[in-house]
Amino acid sequence: MVLIKEFRIVLPMTVEEYQVAQLYSVAEASKNETGGGEGIEVIHNEPYTQEECGQSMYDGTQIKDGQYTHKIFHLASKVPAFIRWLAPKGSLEVHEKAWNAYPFCRTVVTNPDYMRENFEIKIESWHIADDMGELENVHKLPPELLAKREVIRIDIANDPVGNKDYKREEDPKLFHSEKTGRGPLTNDWKKAARPVMCAYKLVTVRFKWFGLQNRVEKFIQTGERRIFTNFHRQVFCWIDKWYGLSMEDIRAIEEKTKKELDKKRQDGEVCGTTAD
Known about the structure:
Layout: E1 2-11, H1 15-32, E2 39-48, H2 50-53, E3 66-74, H3 81-86, E4 93-101, E5 104-110, E6 119-129, H4 143-146, E7 150-154, E8 197-207, H5 213-237, H6 239-242, H7 247-267
Parallel strand pairs: 1-7
Antiparallel strand pairs: 1-8, 2-3, 3-4, 4-5, 5-6, 6-8
């Protein structure tokens, strides 16, 4: 099974702001999802060179210098019950490796200890300024992959959010930024949004597990949309927390967060998003 979904998320901020916003929000969200033996373990967070990466995009262009991260996600309660029931103890860990050559980023998620080559999620992101999500083929996919791709648009203000995920303080229709004056976002907020940008996230899923293809396909489809929607609502509603931070500030926050995650994973209680 191979799924190709392109999520397009329009945001009321600049591409430069989003670089800081995304990294800040990843660090904060990681803390919210970690505790009681579950959550995120940061293995590497360091610069890499184009030569060390050695990977190319679909048009043959090599991925440029950037920041490399390797994380392990200790899942357990964060996967569906039918997978927990089938998978042996200790197998519910996934590895995430990312090469962030902003405004491009490639993230690869695998399960090397159990499913090995039978499971891979690849997320390739382009962040485009002054764009409303109308570029037809920003990833330069060849015709055979373009024919399989499904485009999914996410509206951070108007798309429905589940009761378990909804937080009033993270509702773009209610939030107003004291620092920037942005928000609340109205039903037709995109018409007047300035600044504006679009994150194009191409998700390619390769999965091979006899008897579970359809159920896992449905879980991935709904799960990715849920993650992208909730995360980008946070990115916007946390604007007064990250606005004005430098990349040096972000690296310091990431280092502090790594230490907090290690402690929470050992001592805290299970928290954050669950699958069911």
